[in-house]
Amino acid sequence: MRRALAIAAVAILPLAHVTAASATEPDDRQQAFAAAAEEFQVPESVLLGVSYLESRWDAHAGTPSNNAGFGPMHLTDAASYTGSNHHGQDEEDPRGDDSRPAVPAAEAPGPAEIPAALRTLERAAELTGESRERLRADPAANIRGGAALLADYQKSIGAPLSDDPGQWYGAVAKYSGAEQQEAARFFADEVFATIKSGEERVTDDGHRVRLSPVPNLGKVVAWLEKLGLRAPRRDGVECPSTVSCEWIPAGYAELPGGGYGNHDLANRPSSQKIDYIVIHDMEGYFGPSVGLVRNPAYRASWQYSLRSSDGHIAQHIKAKDVAWQAGNWYINAKSIGLEHEGFLAEGHTWYTEAMYRTSAKLVRYLALRHGVPLDRAHIIGHDNVPGTLPTTVRGMHEDPGPFWDWAHYFKLLGAPLHPFGGPRSGAVMIRPDFQNNKPYFYGCDRQNPEAACPPLPAHTVWLRTEPREDAPLVKDIGKHPTGESLYSVYDHSARASTGQRYAVADRQGDWTAIWYLGQKAWFHNPASAPTAVPSMGLVVTPRPGLATVPVYGRAYPEEAAYPEGVPYQAVTPLQYTFSAGEKYTLAGTAATEYYRAVTFDPANHQVVRGKTKYLQIQFGHRIMFVKADDVRVTFSG
């Protein structure tokens, strides 16, 4: 499969068996932090704060996190740092515009030198005497390594090993591995904000850890001038002032043969409103991916790249212009795309708290600026974007995947996913307890793609044909024209995700059925540990007299709307329909538009608007559209 062939920036080493702790070693996560803080003379609050921003204190079962980082302290152990096989280079054309010919793929950049920030585990081994295997696999050893690094950084900038947390700002900034002053400052500021407010949670392996608030930190001594970091390069970027952000423009040039790349100039929102923000993962690494988007011959582009180690943001395309990012031209023309460093199959281990926080700050800023609703119908994953035609459905992407914590993300957005309605409401919002929801998947191991994934927190629930655990998964005829849905981490054919709203089709005991792709889909939803919450609201059903209703992947105008010289874009239904008696939740109206942009010169670009009214619905895992004349809108309380 294409993701298993992605060029890795690190060599994923065989997972070492976790060594049993000796009688002198703490076996409790909180005790491990306390012991390491005392041993290396680092304030415990600082050690806890840094670890929270890197991993939220999780151990990740010894698997690698971003840039081959391991354990609660995210110690990095990169064996190589090479190019990225970004997910734009496969069967999905990121433009999603069948009105123009395909663009050949550009070659990925070659290997690059390993940055020091990707080799911190090596230095931690020197400082502690721990083996690399133990630093990767044993949480207590890993925390010792992180504490030793912080102390080493403190000494390197001439700062004292003080018990005053405020004296450790420079060491914390250096721990981020950032090359930019802004990025290091953001990371340190977020750590110290966490220290000030406090945090408490249960880790992925069941340890309760608490960082008690330190409300009176006193004066924080920055020491940033000792780090020798690059000065900020904001250059008019469209980012909130509270994040680290720089302008690295995407390539835009005419190409041999009359083509051009790698995005389209526009005048949004004056020409057309921005309705969506699309969350991607890179299936690659920050540096090589940024290198790709700068190449006009590369057939994909996006507005923003986010680095996972420190949350640093690079903007490549202005919000007014259209990136080739989502594989659906209608969505591209009405959205902004954010690419997050990481790999879908390596799960929540890639998605650091630092990256979640900068991403949420950026998305909230963009949503408020452009009037995008803060809900899961408009803040969507690439995996929620529909295919444009029946022939493109199968190749659409699945990122950011089941390990992206949507509930936590929306809390950071300031729009937590609350229930709305009573226990017998006619609609539900999927919302399992992310930390304790660990469904079965296979396909996380690149070297052994058929092996089961380790039990990892996930935002998704499996959907079955009957209300029992051994029932088959429901089918997606677009994703699998023949054959069955898979338990692969890459196959969302039979999955519903946190924040998505569905109409209830039935209930039996601990099971709830929703309408999904024209069928009843059952998921386990016990009252003692619910995986969905009430969410009443508007739903659509076929209008009287219609047996079935077609659904669409884009809301294109009717033929009469096209002026002379602009070819008609066929309004083609997808392979799905839904029948009388079925209901699907309504997200609102969808603008009937087609953005004609097939030339390098934007003077020839044009927005075509029609009179046909479309509605956006949650039809399966992806959003889709129906014609308003085909359905009746009712309230489901």
UniProtKB/TrEMBL annotation:
Disordered: annotated span: 64-116
Q: Where is the composition biased (Low complexity)?
A: 101-116
Q: What protein does this entry describe?
A: N-acetylmuramoyl-L-alanine amidase
- What single Pfam family name could you report for this chain, choosing any that match? Amidase_2
According to the UniProt record, what class of enzyme is this?
hydrolase
**UniProt entry tagged with the keyword Hydrolase:** yes
Superkingdom as given in the UniProt entry: Bacteria
Matching SMART domains: Ami_2 (SM00644)
Matching CDD domains? PGRP (cd06583)
